[in-house]
């Protein structure tokens, strides 16, 4: 170990966290419970939890191997997410069947002869709107199912609640009236108060679903449910802890259910503790909410009256880093014509590949379609000066789209690549490496604009 810099042993993904923690130690002279991965003698990595304090010109530190604990925590998080997905699947299947009914009926009506342009337009609009709703539904499900470590990000709680609210009816059923109140008020200048937090958006969504499911079960399928977002200047005194003043976002879920007995209130956040019958819950839902709140620097409160109802309130520290702007959003870029631009389409799915090629031809592009990465690289080598942009799926047999894009960047630095994916474990674990990403399902307009943006960026780099 003599002569080795400690940062050379830290996992590359934890370098920024460790550097920030060291700066805190240098300024505050103490460090508590910092979990980072360190390389072992055999080249593997272990999670070490550090506590340190400064004394004079030295730092005294102790590290404890917590690899097993971190592994169990990750397994628990995945169990919690899967429980949330399980709660959703039945209702989602019902919703998807409704959406497919609209699409199928509209396509059948479009086939009828003598259809007026007005009616044709209505049916086409119905299909387009329904696809948007279906895409929104799948994006929410994928947010729950992603297998990735906690990734805090600054996001607007109001927007997240609004997105989840669209799915709440699926969870609760028709006999529960659902309402939302996301009006956090205005500041002294009359502007709407923002409710940004710095936390893991996926875990926030999961926590909200768990609270909704809990409320639904407490009401036995009938009653009123209110989701409310507001600003708070303190976390009230909870579980023998004093009140914590500060700037918080409070998200409450209120029901008109059976309520919780006073002697159970102290136990409801314990893992695997549940008052539900066998087969009706694992007891992980509320423990996930509690763990998420504490890990994010907040807390969760519960107020309940037996026979009247219960309110769970999730407190999260408000982020001041989000840039507040009341400027009008940019106008969408108009549909771009291809003007004969050669495009290489890489897509292993027959239907999607054929559609993408035909759509690009209709827009004036010259589209060549291949089904895997090796064929794509061979086509690029054979048509060195002819392919101007590559459009590739991410999930493919053999080399995936991200690796293909990186190989193209190595061979042809100025050949732009646009990736497409609905969801990919590759993207969740590795990211896009700076390549343009088009989310499925995409529109023809979205595809054309993404290609034109990539081409413009290439021109800027080439002729800069």
TrEMBL record:
<dbReference type="InterPro" id="IPR003661">
    <property type="entry name" value="HisK_dim/P_dom"/>
</dbReference>
<dbReference type="InterPro" id="IPR005467">
    <property type="entry name" value="His_kinase_dom"/>
</dbReference>
<protein>
    <recommendedName>
        <fullName>histidine kinase</fullName>
        <ecNumber>2.7.13.3</ecNumber>
    </recommendedName>
</protein>
<dbReference type="InterPro" id="IPR036097">
    <property type="entry name" value="HisK_dim/P_sf"/>
</dbReference>
<dbReference type="Pfam" id="PF02518">
    <property type="entry name" value="HATPase_c"/>
</dbReference>
<dbReference type="InterPro" id="IPR003594">
    <property type="entry name" value="HATPase_dom"/>
</dbReference>
<dbReference type="Pfam" id="PF08447">
    <property type="entry name" value="PAS_3"/>
</dbReference>
<dbReference type="InterPro" id="IPR011006">
    <property type="entry name" value="CheY-like_superfamily"/>
</dbReference>
<dbReference type="InterPro" id="IPR004358">
    <property type="entry name" value="Sig_transdc_His_kin-like_C"/>
</dbReference>
<dbReference type="InterPro" id="IPR013655">
    <property type="entry name" value="PAS_fold_3"/>
</dbReference>
<dbReference type="InterPro" id="IPR035965">
    <property type="entry name" value="PAS-like_dom_sf"/>
</dbReference>
<dbReference type="InterPro" id="IPR036890">
    <property type="entry name" value="HATPase_C_sf"/>
</dbReference>
<dbReference type="Pfam" id="PF00072">
    <property type="entry name" value="Response_reg"/>
</dbReference>
<feature type="domain" description="Histidine kinase">
    <location>
        <begin position="91"/>
        <end position="320"/>
    </location>
</feature>
<dbReference type="InterPro" id="IPR000014">
    <property type="entry name" value="PAS"/>
</dbReference>
<feature type="domain" description="Response regulatory">
    <location>
        <begin position="342"/>
        <end position="455"/>
    </location>
</feature>
<dbReference type="InterPro" id="IPR001789">
    <property type="entry name" value="Sig_transdc_resp-reg_receiver"/>
</dbReference>
<keyword id="KW-0597">Phosphoprotein</keyword>
<dbReference type="GO" id="GO:0016301">
    <property type="term" value="F:kinase activity"/>
</dbReference>
<keyword id="KW-0418">Kinase</keyword>
<dbReference type="Pfam" id="PF00512">
    <property type="entry name" value="HisKA"/>
</dbReference>
<feature type="modified residue" description="4-aspartylphosphate">
    <location>
        <position position="393"/>
    </location>
</feature>
<keyword id="KW-0808">Transferase</keyword>
